[in-house]
Write a structure and sequence with these properties.
With 370 residues, the protein is an alpha+beta fold. The chain has helices spanning 2-19, 63-75, 202-216, 238-246, 333-342, 347-359, and strands at 27-28, 33-35, 41-50, 93-101, 110-117, 128-135, 141-148, 154-157, 162-165, 170-179, 192-197, 221-223, 228-232, 249-250, 257-261, 266-269, 274-275, 278-280, 286-291, 294-296, 307-309, 312-317, 325-327, 363-364, 366-369.
């Protein structure tokens, strides 16, 4: 009877065990590396936004906007040369248009564009971008942008104050550009695939090559430098091979580094940061001077005068309660943070302490200041 009970429990638990997610170790190759040839191309163009409610460029000060407006009207058959000095419209703004052309974008496809004011326009919300060619680094036009733009900003102004939310001089046009030219590149035309690591590292590159060789047989992949892993196609279909390689998981390695941004007081420390044995003491001398003057009034029916009697209180805080702490050699990142927090160290003081530890040769990591 007992074996039957055990068999029944296994049958009931079988589907539940099958539905449990498998915990994968590491990250996918597609999240740490790019395949050569699969990349975006940046586009830029210069255009005009019309239909603004008096918030456009001032033509007297924005000479390029005036010239662009006159040139556009002449191409449309409107002669404004004789009335050039009388152009006072405030409904036009000169803008820069930028976009990213995705890899293998086909002619007729649409991409998003970003529009930013170039002159002294104060708000381009609700305007319409006129036909604007978007050029690549080779000077050729790969897309044409046009459409109504939105900024997502709110701007209100009164006689005494004004309110602005977000940036009213920068907006976007969803699907606002039509691809006119394709970037020529035949994927798989070469006998090998080249993977480019986003964070170059010898260890990570070797691990990627080893993971590929385990999955597809030895000798198919080799790390040629800290950034590049070359994979031989060996008669395999390139798209299918790339798709399978992207799903492989590896454990990327990272150098010991401490990044400090002094402007905001931000400190980021990697997991491999280690500290040799060092003693730390942190404290500041604070002197607080408080003035509380008193007013002395003369007695009733007297000839005295009102006088101000100064009263000064001076307090000195040398933070004598803070003691020197010892961090043992080879401590982990968690131990380092816990030790500094035990001293009551804030982010600003921690920056100075880390710089001093590095100067003493006890911080076994790169210190990067930004």
């Amino acid at each position: 009877m007992r074996p039957l009970l055990v068999l029944l429990l296994l049958l009931l638990a079988g589907p539940a065990l099958a539905q449990r997610p498998i915990v994968d170790i590491g990250v996918r190759v597609k999240d740490i590396a790019d395949i050569e040839g699969v990349r975006d191309n940046q586009l830029v163009g210069y255009g005009l936004v019309v239909g603004l409610p008096g918030t456009g460029d001032r033509l007297r000060t924005s000479v390029f906007t005036r010239q662009s407006l006159i040139g556009m009207l002449e191409r449309l058959g409107v002669n404004t040369r004789d009335q050039e000095q009388r152009l006072e419209t405030k409904n036009v703004a000169a803008v820069m248009v930028t976009a990213n052309l995705p890899a293998y974008a086909r002619s007729g496809g649409r991409i998003d564009v970003a529009v930013s004011a170039l002159g002294d326009a104060t708000n381009i919300s609700g305007g319409t971008l006129l036909v604007t060619p978007l050029l690549a680094a080779d000077g050729e036009a790969y897309a044409v942008a046009q459409g109504a733009l939105s900024t997502g900003a709110i701007a209100a102004r009164g006689a005494a104050t004004s309110v602005t939310r977000n940036v009213p001089t920068s907006g976007r046009i969803a699907n606002g550009a039509v691809v006119e030219r394709e970037v020529p590149f035949k994927f798989g035309s070469k006998p090998q695939l080249r993977l480019a690591l986003r964070n170059p590292d010898f260890t990570t590159a070797r691990r990627v090559a080893m993971a590929i060789n385990r999955a597809f047989g030895g000798g198919n992949a080799a790390a040629t430098d800290p950034r590049t892993v070359v994979v031989s196609l060996a008669g395999r279909e390139p798209v299918g091979l790339a798709a399978e390689i992207e799903q492989l998981r590896v454990e990327p390695d990272s150098p010991a580094k401490v990044v400090i941004e002094e402007s905001s007081g931000t400190i980021v420390m990697g997991a491999n940061v280690r500290v040799s044995t060092v003693a730390i003491a942190q404290g500041n001398l604070t002197i607080r001077v408080t003035e509380t003057p008193l007013v002395s009034q003369p007695g009733p029916l007297s000839n005295g005068q009102t006088a101000v009697v100064p009263r000064t209180n001076v307090e000195v805080d040398d933070q004598a309660e803070r003691r020197m702490a010892v961090l043992r050699g080879g401590v982990t990142l968690q131990d380092l943070v816990a030790g500094l927090n035990a001293l009551g160290v804030g982010p600003r003081d921690m920056i100075s302490i880390l710089q001093t530890i590095k100067a003493a040769g006890a911080l076994q990591a790169d210190l990067e200041l930004r």
